[in-house]
Amino acid sequence: MAVVIRLQGLRVTAGAEDIRRFFTGLKIPDGGVHIIGGEREEAFIIFASDEDARRAMTRSGGLIKGSPVTLLLSSKTEMQSMLERTTKIVELDQKSRSGDTPPPLLQRASNTDDVFLFLKGLPFSVTEKEICDFFSGILVEEVVLVKNRKGSNNGTGFVKFATRQDAMEGLKRDREYIGSRYIEISTTTLNDWYRATGGVSRSPVAQRHIAPSDEEYCVVLENLSFAVEKEDIKQLFHNAKLEDDQILHLIDRDGKRKRSALVLFKSLRDYCEALAHEKRQFLNRLVHTRPISRENMIALLKPQGVTVQPSGNSERFQERPSSYSSDPYDSEKICIFVRNLPFDVRKVEIIDFFHGFNITEDNVHVLQDREGAGVGKALVVFGSEAEAMRALSLDGRRFLGSEVILKCISRSQMQQLGHPPLSHQPSAGSPSLYL
User: Fold this and answer.
1) Given Cys at both, which of 112, 141, 268, 363 links 381, Cβ 3.0 to 4.6 Å?
2) Quick count: other Cβ atoms within 10 Å of Cβ 285?
3) Domain 218-319 belongs to what topology?
4) 36 Cβ neighbours under 8 A, 6+ residues apart
5) Which among 4, 13, 3 is positioned nearest to 67, based on CA atoms?
6) pTM over 0.70
7) CATH architecture observed for domain 104-197
8) pLDDT per residue over 16-56, tens digit each?
């Protein structure tokens, strides 16, 4: 069965042959390398078999043309989605150049005074001053050079001009040179500016805080109807495809629901789209959407006994069950929460990882999503807290191509992850868990 791996950190000078050379000895079918590029410098590689993909994952951290690359398990669905999105961007860019349709810049002119251009093909050593010099005679308000994960320029950037006319003049310099490289210039949107840079603009939306990291995409909704349900909020932000554990209603000291709720987003794009509507009518009330910092969010959650736990690429609210007990037995840490596993990992493979410990398949619970697919996480129950603590010595060890992350958790925390209550001895035949 063909398996897809996502590669990140690919140098712009690297091609498909460089990728194939990196995976020498492994079977990659014809047409199995798809270079995406983008902010994370990505590519997708299709391997002919599960065994080829497993061996490929062991090469994560290796060098392609002198640059270390990161390998992640992916899927055909994710790859196809990225390819379609990249194709649409190229088509829109070509359409704006053809002259058949007015450029998006002109179409948006009546809606905003802030107009941005996107620059591609910049020298890696370029400075903001050199870009301003490139647009000499045009009033440039701000330049942002996009960085890669190492903090170096990735060859792209955004320029904000003072007026629409300035931006239109800047667009005319498409394919002119900075040094020895010609620069491709195209129009872009305010949302693209936010998503790529987290920058600050004169517009009312941009004056508000934009989340500085991938783990702080949270907003607070205020003045909600008391009758609002999570399904209503999902419809409000339908593009974000929210799950129930990304939405939390705030309650007062008496346990009654307030007119406020917190919403966690998986991506900066969804977060920015939410903030684009600071005030809107929702269920016959004027609802306010405001950003909230991680510190303020945690302060709001403490009285409710709620924590924020990471899950994949986003965070989720973990609500303490009403039956939560302070019994010492509940706080006994006999379980290891295992993360960063292959999505198709089997129980017997996890038992092999914990070789030397008294573990059977009944003690291993592979976490699955609501469709029954693996999520790369598992719970392993040990006979005692001391044994679980000894198992922590394996934290960070490489396993099936990835560094496994281990955390010792209590019985009550196991229940928060969806695990059924345990008797004093681990029970057999526990059902699948949902996270």
Assistant:
1) 363
2) 15
3) Alpha-Beta Plaits (3.30.70)
4) 42, 43, 44, 82, 83, 86
5) 13
6) no
7) 2-Layer Sandwich (3.30)
8) 888 999 999 999 988 889 888 766 678 899 998 888 888 88
